[in-house]
Amino acid sequence: MQRIVTPIKEFIKDSRAIGIVLLTTTLLSIATANSNGYEAVAHILHQPLSYFKYLHLPESLAAWINDFLMGFYFLLIGLEIKRAFLIGELSNRKAAIAPIIAAIGGMLAPALIYWFITQHTMHTKGWGIPMATDIAFSLGVLSLLSKRMPLSVKIFLMALAIIDDLGGILVIALFYSQTITYAFLLLSIVLLLILWKWHGYLKPIFNIILSFAIWYCIHRAGIHGTIAGILVAWCLPLSSAAYIEHKLHDFTSFIILPLFVFANTLLPIPSIASFLSFNTMQLGIITGLNIGKPLGILLFLALGIRLGWCQLPNGANWKHLLIVGIIAGIGFTISLFISQLAFSTVLDQHAAIIAILVSFCISLMSTFLAYPFIKKT
Q1: For 35, 61, 87, 90, which has the most beta carbons within 10 A of its beta carbon?
Q2: Which pTM value belongs to this model?
């Protein structure tokens, strides 16, 4: 049991630093966007590189960050999900059911609220944006507050966020990918089978080359290339997965995620000021994350307990779970990612990013306002 709990404690501890780094990066990005260096930075990020076009590769630095580098983040998520289900906090059926039920409610309610608000508009495609929970930020916020919070509550939030990410990945694969090119899809499946069956017989360099080939084929198939990270993760044995997870963690958390956040929150003041127009898409995102998330989590969990399917985490009460529901409204990384896929115009993408940032601030304020009234019993 100790070998399971220790990595979880380390992850939770690291999440404090990750949350601070990502918040600092966001502030730096907005400051840069409103400085004299904005045009130069934006040019570097979005300047098309024509020779990549002929190879059917991402054509700008921003596209490489979103389509390729974020694949490493999804690989890390895939490894965490695999470990959680095989030997971790989701390996026990009874322990797994509570966060699974809560996560389902926390995905369905925000999506339905967003759809209800935006129906009959051009923005209904963004229903996946408020479904997400950011693992690093949510655990970071809880860890900063949580000397009085039971460890079981932190594990519950981590499991819920992992399942949310899995749901977000499925949503991206099924609803936010392009027209499928079946020849490349079939080739990617063949390569995945080779990696799954013969990874132990191949030298590490060939496994790496094979993994990059899988990414390229999935990218060419019209499915977002980051999905390759999840699929590769599930093809690796648990021993190798643990080693790769350890090696990738800092690189992903302190280099890739800050790059992604910087590139996708680079908003000039005119774009921020446009928030005052307050369209239905923004209202759907904010309402979905800040009301739909806690409402869905608590209602579905209460239903699961009433039906006898699960129970509250050890030492936890409903006040603790209310805090979890509020913090789960921090969608951030995955919400930003889905917003880039859901909308094709820069105006809509900026509006969605602003709504996600506002939701983040509301979640933080709500958490700090609620916390003094919630004590461990």
Answers
A1: 90
A2: 0.76
